[in-house]
Every structure is written in C-alpha cells, then in structure tokens.
C-alpha cells in the first residue's frame, strides 16, 4: 500500500517541482532567449561545447530561482522591474557575443561576472521593493506586481505578513507549543532517569543490608554448630 501511494504522489511532486519558477523565468521566452544568446557565444568547433553550454545555461537560468526562493521577503517584484532586469541581462550577453573568442576558460569567467552582477542587482531590487511595499506609508510604483514563486500578477500594492518577514501568529503559536512539548519531554526523561536511579540505589542498599544480615546469620549459625560439635566431643571424652 505504501508503494502504491508513492507511485501516486510521485507525478504530483514532480509536477509541482517543474511548476516552480522565479522572477526572470516567468517570461515564457526568457529561457529560450538565454539559451540562444549563450549558444552564440561558443563556436561550433569548440571541444565539449554541448556540456559547456548546458552548464552555463543552467547556472544562468536558475540564478533568479536561488535568489527569490531563498527568502519570502524577496518573493514579489514590480513587473516592469523584472522586465528591465531581463533586458539588462540580454544586453550583457549581446556584448559578450560581439567580443572576439578567446577560449572557453575566458568565457566562463566573463559569464561568472555577469551572473554575480545579476545576483547583486536582483537582490538589491527585490529587497528595495520589499522595504517600500512593506513600509507603513507604502508608496509603490504603479503597475502590476509579480509573485516570483507562482508567476501570478498581484493587484495588491502593499503587503503584510510573511511577505514582509512578519511571523504568522499561528506559526508562532505552533512553535511555542513545540518548544513546550520538547521541554516537557526533557523533564519526563530526566524525571524517569532520576526515579530509575533512585530505585536502583534503594534496591542496592536493600540487597547490601540483606547480604550483611545473611552473613551475620550464617556466622552465628556456624558458631553454634562449632559449639555443639565441641560439646559433643567433650561429652564423649567424659564417658570414656
């Protein structure tokens, strides 16, 4: 039965995983454009070209996923800002395409610089937008807002709760209950250990007392037997 549930849930989990996107990937053409632009950077005669392209494309495409999914506060962004980031990235790749080919190692270094700059820009834009959208006077730029986790457009201009790093009261309550249960478990374990130790010590003392009493009893009986034996010897000697 467990295997059957696993087989039923596996397609759902895979579907959910493939459905997860990020700020830049919400544009249906983004992945296609990045693949095309990076592919133009590497001449066809370069050894290991396919593997090189696959790795560079994967790292470039999944960068925004790593940034936006690392913190709930970096989840929302104005649509026009996401568009500007995509345009900036494409322009950077166009510039690299116009440069003279100097080898795979040099290209990887330049693409690394582009990714690092993109990551800094994306983090800064997401953080700045979150601070404005979560502020008390909340004044955001007009236009639709993008939920980078679902690629849905949000009409709300101001945010509260987990989007702003505010803890959900239910989650806080659950955590307090969890901490209480952990503390209660530790107390029960320590109490049980102390009780077991007390029982063991008491039993050891009782057994020690019993052994002491038994030893005295046996010594007394032995003395009585020895006395009786000596008396019998004396009586038999008198008779002779």
Report on the structure:
The chain contains seven helices and three strands; from the N terminus they run ααααβααββα. The radius of gyration is 40 Å and the shape is elongated. Strands 1-2-3 form a three-stranded antiparallel β-sheet. It folds into two domains: 17-167, no CATH class; 168-239. The longest helix is centred in the last third of the chain and has 71 residues, at 169-239. It has helices spanning 2-19, 30-39, 49-61, 63-68, 79-97, 104-133, 169-239, and strands at residues 76-78, 145-147, 152-154. With 240 residues, the protein is mostly helical. Helix 2 packs parallel to helix 5 and helix 3 runs parallel beside helix 6 (104-133).
Give the topology, please.
Elements: H1 2-19, H2 30-39, H3 49-61, H4 63-68, E1 76-78, H5 79-97, H6 104-133, E2 145-147, E3 152-154, H7 169-239
Antiparallel strand pairs: 1-2, 2-3
Pfam families: IZUMO
Family: Belongs to the Izumo family.
Transmembrane segments: 177-201
Q: What is the number of independent domains?
A: 2
Q: List how many beta strands DSSP finds.
A: 3
- Main beta-sheet strand count, sense and barrel state: 3 strands, antiparallel
Structural class: mainly alpha
Helix content class? 55-70%
Mean pLDDT: 76
What is the CA-atom radius of gyration, in angstroms? 40 Å
The helix-strand sequence is: HHHHEHHEEH
Shape call: elongated
Distance N terminus to C terminus? 96 Å
Counted by DSSP, the helix tally is 7
Give the low-confidence spans: 1-20
Strand content: under 5%
> Main sheet: which strands, in order across?
1-2-3
């Amino acid at each position: 039965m467990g295997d059957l549930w696993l087989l039923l849930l596996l397609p759902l989990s895979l579907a959910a995983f493939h459905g997860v996107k990020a700020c830049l990937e919400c544009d249906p053409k983004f992945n296609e454009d990045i693949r095309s632009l990076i592919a133009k950077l590497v001449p066809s005669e370069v050894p290991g070209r396919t593997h090189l392209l696959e790795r560079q494309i994967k790292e470039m495409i999944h960068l925004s996923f790593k940034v936006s999914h690392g913190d709930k506060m970096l989840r929302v962004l104005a649509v026009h800002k996401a568009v500007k980031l995509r345009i900036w990235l494409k322009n950077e790749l166009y510039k690299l395409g116009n440069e003279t080919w100097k080898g795979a190692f040099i290209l990887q270094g330049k693409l690394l610089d582009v990714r690092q700059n993109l990551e800094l820009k994306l983090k800064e834009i997401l953080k700045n937008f979150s601070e404005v959208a979560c502020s008390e006077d909340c004044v955001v730029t007009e236009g639709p807002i993008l939920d980078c986790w679902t690629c849905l457009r949000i009409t709300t201009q101001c945010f509260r709760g987990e989007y702003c790093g505010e803890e959900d009261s239910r989650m806080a309550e659950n955590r307090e209950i969890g901490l209480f249960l952990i503390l209660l478990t530790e107390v029960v374990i320590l109490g049980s250990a102390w009780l077991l130790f007390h029982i063991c010590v008491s039993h050891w003392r009782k057994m020690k007392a019993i052994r002491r009493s038994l030893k005295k009893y046996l010594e007394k009986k032995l003395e009585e037997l020895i006395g009786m034996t000596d008396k019998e010897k004396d009586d038999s000697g008198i008779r002779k």
